[in-house]
TrEMBL record:
Family designation: Belongs to the bacterial solute-binding protein 2 family.
Domain HTH iclR-type stretches: 24-84
Tagged with keyword ATP-binding: no
Principal location class: other
UniProt source species: Paracidobacterium acidisoli
GO biological process: regulation of DNA-templated transcription
Superkingdom of this protein's organism: Bacteria
Protein name: HTH iclR-type domain-containing protein
Keyword Disulfide bond among UniProt keywords: no
Annotated InterPro entries: Peripla_BP_I, SBP_2_dom, Tscrpt_reg_IclR_N, WH-like_DNA-bd_sf, WH_DNA-bd_sf
Matching Gene3D superfamilies: 3.40.50.2300, Winged helix-like DNA-binding domain superfamily/Winged helix DNA-binding domain
Cellular component aspect of the GO annotation: cell envelope
Amino acid sequence: MTAIKNKPDAMNQDNSRRVDKYWIPIVARTIDLLDCFGAATKPLTLEEVVKSTGIPHTTAYRILHTLVLRDYLNRSGRQYRLNQLRRRLKFGFANLSKHVSLAVEIEESLKAATSAAGIDLVVWDNDRSADKAIQNAREMAVSKVDLAIEFQLFENVAPVISDIFSRSEIPLISLVNPHHGTVYFGVNNYRAGFAAGTALADFALRHWKSQIDALLLLESPRAGRTIQSRLVGAIQGIQERLGPLPEKDVHHLDGGGDRATSKSAVAGFMKSKGKKRILIVGINDESAIGAIEAADQARYGTELAVVGHGGSMEILDIAADPDSPCIGTVCFHPERYGPDLLNFALPIVRGRSAPVVHYVPHEFMGKEALIRRGHAPATARST
């Protein structure tokens, strides 16, 4: 018969604990219990904690109850999990594109806010690609981020992305373009468009005596109905000031939310139609900048008025130029996204309920206001 030998290290450790007058058993058990959660990949029940640690049932329950009250653990029903805020958090951010000014400014703001809060931020570039957005979502899920933030504009892949994070039990915040089953952080797209429309209508009232020859709506059908509602709002804003527009004067162009595509679409329209007084609404700043570049090449100036959506520094520089056909943009204040987004995200990570929609403020930033504030146009900055 083979004798069972105790491990020397374990025996010595037990013996030292018995003679150590400073040893506090309940503290040691609490640490053992917390270590149990640190190694777990899913929530644990009281029974699982008892089995894993060997702590008596009543003692384990009292420790769990105390740790919940002191915010070291979160409880949901019969399950407990480690409060994520008791360790360094890791957020994932899949950004629209490193080549889109608005997206770059949002990313810079978020990086500054997470760094100040001691949160790790891992950034992926969706590169304005639906396939890339799906791939990035999968990589983010594998990396086990505590919270995911998604900025992509393809409505058809939004359910796929939402499902990836749902199955991985990772909370997801969608920016600018709402994703089904997630919480949304961004502007009220319809109201933002309405602000753009009223600004264009006011311009036409002051400068053209309400007479316009054409309204161009630079769309992005792939972005889906929510983003497209900006243009619905723009039409309503214009018609509220100027009255109903003849259907023949409203032109829907697919600019793809892209500068080059919008430039090509507007240039083609100007060559074929020969209209004189044109209002243009870009679904975003990139589309508006593309329209402005087309107008510059076609030598359109005072008979053209362009408005964008976003408020990137690039389009603000353009709008501040007195000679630019851009009369302003609906500003989403991307520089504020970081701190506001963090305040919105942290309760979600804590397991608290959050509103399904959180609208951020927007405002129209017009040429006159920018000039009054002393905002230097792009031409002045480059000299």
